[in-house]
Amino acid sequence: MPVDSTQASYVDDALFRENVAVLSRRAPRLRGLIDSPREGYTIHRADGDGFQILDRQGAPVLPDPEPTYSRNRAAAFLENPFVLRHARHPKHVPDPYLWWDHVRPIMDELPREFWFRTVPHTEAHTLACVDCPAPDALLDIINALPELRNVLVMTCNVGLFVGALHYSSWKDFFESLSDRDISVDFIYSANDEHLSQHLVDSVFTLTPFLSDNILVYFHHSNPATEGVRGSLQTKYTNRLLGVGFFSDELEMIRASRSNIMVHRRPLIARREAHDGTAIVVGSGPSLDHTIDALKDIADRGFVIAAGTAVEPLLEAGIKVDCCVILERGPEVPETFRDMAARVDLSNVAMIASSTVDPETEKYFGSAYYFFRPGMNTSSGFDPDGIHTMRHCDPTVSNTGVGLGLYFGFRKFILFGVDLGTADPDRHHNRNTAYYRSDEINRQLEEDPIVMDETAVGAFGGLVRSNFVLNWSRMLMERCLAERTDSLVISVSDGARIKGSVAVLPEAVKGLSRAFPVLLNPYPEDVLTPEEYDVANYNYNLGHAEEYHAMLHKAASEISWERRHEVANDFQRILLFIRRQDPFKIVFRGTTAEMVWSFFSVLNRMTDEERRTYEPRLREVMLNSLQTMKREVADLLNADH
After folding, report:
1. pLDDT tens across 290-326, in order?
2. DSSP code of residue 300
3. Tens of pLDDT along 382-415?
4. What is the dihedral of CA 509, 512, 515, 519, to 10 degrees?
5. Residue 15 CB-half CA count within 13 A
6. What radius of gyration, in Å, describes the C-alpha atoms of the chain?
7. What span, in angstroms and rounded, lies between the C-alpha atoms of 155 and 133?
8. Domains of the chain
9. 490, 277 in Cβ contact below 8 A?
10. What 3-state DSSP class applies to 366?
11. Which DSSP helix (H) or strand (E) runs through 563?
12. How do strand 42-46 and strand 50-54 relate by DSSP bridges?
């Protein structure tokens, strides 16, 4: 029945005050929202005891009156719920010698269809609710989920949420949950393009290790929420990637110790801010048609080549002040060995992460090092962060910008930092090792670069991208948002980078007339070496054994019956405590993967299968942790 918007709006001040008091105690983060304006929303009686909220144009915010709408939505959701899945198959856990090699015999004993069993949504332990203004629907869903332990309530439409405080009781909601051990967490999110990522991050923070079978309820049914639903599973899957793995962490220690402790190679000094301009050059395909424009200005800025971009620059006769390298592994020195046979690297300074292969620097004229943030080597070698470069991940283009900031530059011109491409078949400049190295070509044939996502183009429209490039762009945008004192110009037809100004290559000659760049010289001593202070070395075997003991205790208690308690223990040990302990990062990745896999397997088992296989899986985890402890001890003892 249509609502007459000319009738007086409905208010229940007593219920409103009661709700405010309850939410102030139970959801203190919402206090500011409750006091905010209701965006012109009004509440009106509808269908007898029903209520309808109208926007400032007098249109219903929800298609049907409450509580009818909530009851219908809840019933429809329980019939066909939206579920976030995260099932970590044991064979996908890194370091197979620690997990898969030992779990495989167990998997071989299980039925062939085991991994494809569907986990009933009624066994869900976590529910996320988006823009549910009143608790009626929420309570209907909760009562249908006997295993539920966590509820996340995300509010986007503030007017809708505040309006509902006049006709629905949160006090009754919390009293209904008093006999169940369910935690309820309230958060706010702007209803924009970041909503899905915010939701994913919030779910992960709430329950990082029981991350499968997460129910997500959207109170609204409209194109905007459908768009969020469409990207949610991909973002959730990606959120659970990139935690590192044990053998790689040890390799980073070995390489850093060789570069910094054994060979005593210099670190690169940080500089104060100045008025010079840094020219950061990536190896994106746009460099094919912008390199001539770069030639016109290269001698007026400090040229930072991002990894393989150094080759087309030198080939074009452009002086390169430094080449920054982030990646590690034996293929890196091989790539630059082959490159040194094609172009002269002897006048180029290499600036690299301490984790790069120690053989890499011999192909350059000089070399300096820095520590990557978030790695075990930053807290292990540089606990005070003096030589740790922020904003240098995940790609070497990010490193180029991060290095410029580290050197005190606040004015940047980017070439070839595309982070997306109009041609999905072109992923790098044609004069880089990506098209010239037989080994890289072989790797790309086996594992091609797939542009399966999109991004907004620098000059409008859409360009092709992928998870890594979009991740790189997001972190670069976050970096530029923090550096409000920076001016960044991008000469690229790739993805639009928020915080930068996109210009066409034809406009490069006149840049100084339009922008305050390339007007001032940069300091002559940008490349200043500093000796490493060995007193900062922060790897102690006793600390490693203490940390391992905590992990061992949690693993010895892991079981399906105690999954919630043990998952909380691992969350505390792996994510919260000892933030500056390098061993936390060393153990974290592979241990987290084993925990995910352990619960993923048990989640698909019958009770009888759990009684049979749970002890064996637990034994594998304990043995693997013991192996990790032994390998750490062997590595640290090799120092002496």
Report:
1. 999 999 999 999 999 999 999 999 999 999 999 999 9
2. G
3. 999 999 999 999 999 999 999 999 999 999 999 9
4. 140
5. 14
6. 28
7. 8
8. 13-239 (no CATH), 275-348+358-366+392-514 (3.40.50), 539-637 (no CATH)
9. no
10. strand
11. helix 563-571
12. antiparallel
Residue type, 460: G
Model pLDDT, residue 1:
47
Q: Which residues, in sequence order, are bridge partners of residue 187?
A: 154
The angle that helices 582-603 and 607-637 make with each other, rounded to 10 degrees, is 160
How far apart CA 213 and CA 309 sit, in angstroms, is 44
pLDDT on residue 467: 87
Distance (Å, rounded) from C-alpha 457 to C-alpha 21? 48
Q: Is 354 in contact with 381 (CB distance < 8 Å)?
A: yes
> Residue 100's pLDDT is what?
97
Neighbouring C-beta atoms of residue 253, cutoff 10 Å: 23
Residue with token string 């405010």: 20
Find tokens 């790739």 and name the residue. 494
Residue whose entry in the numeric block shows the structure tokens 């009933």: 120
Measured between alpha carbons, how far is 553 from 330 in angstroms, rounded to an integer? 37
Give the pair of three-digit tokens for residue 121. Answer: 């949504």
In angstroms, the CA 57 to CA 59 distance is 6
Is residue 354 within 8 Å of residue 370, measured between CB atoms?
A: yes
Q: Is 17 exposed, middle or buried (0-12, 13-18, 19+ CB in 10 A)?
A: exposed
Q: How far is the C-alpha of 309 from the C-alpha of 413, rounded, in Å?
A: 15
431 close to 401: Cβ distance less than 8 angstroms:
no
Per the CB < 8 A criterion, the answer to whether 571 and 209 are in contact is yes
**422-438 burial: b if 16+ Cβ within 10 Å, else e:** bebebbbbebbbbebbe
**Confidence band for 129, pLDDT divided at 50, 70 and 90:** very high
pLDDT greater than 90 at residue 491: yes
Tokens matching residue 540? 């102690």
- The three-state DSSP-derived secondary structure of 577-613 is CCCCCHHHHHHHHHHHHHHHHHHHHHHCCCHHHHHHH
CA distance 301 to 517: 9
